[in-house]
Design a protein that fits this description.
By secondary structure, this protein is an all-beta fold. It contains no helices and 11 strands. Helices cover 0% and strands 58% of the residues. Strands 2, 4, 5, 6, 9, 10 and 11 form a 7-stranded mixed β-sheet that branches. The protein starts with a strand and ends with a strand.
Length: 118
Amino acid sequence: QVQLVESGGGLVQPGGSLRLSCAASGSIFRMDAMGWYRQAPGKQRELVATITNSGTTNYADSVKGRFTVSGDNAKNTVYLQMNSLKPEDTAVYYCNAVLTTYWRKEYWGQGTQVTVSS
């Protein structure tokens, strides 16, 4: 059984920074990619940033230059450094992992709230 545990959300003022962390645990044979998605009230879940096990990253246009995704393969952990936060970044942020235990599957964390407000 695989679990993704997120931490680091909270309330921050516009222009501020937050760092999210997500650690995957369980019988993981291979981690292919990890990343972050977000869902704002009344909107669909959208990609924020992903990173593969070889270090290739992908970002939503709305966060390029402000957010940085990084990973620690040895710890099966992914981070999201969020700088210059805007009110429109307010959402529940979900950790995502594509990994192989006995078969390749996608997993989701429980979500962590990020609120950007003065």
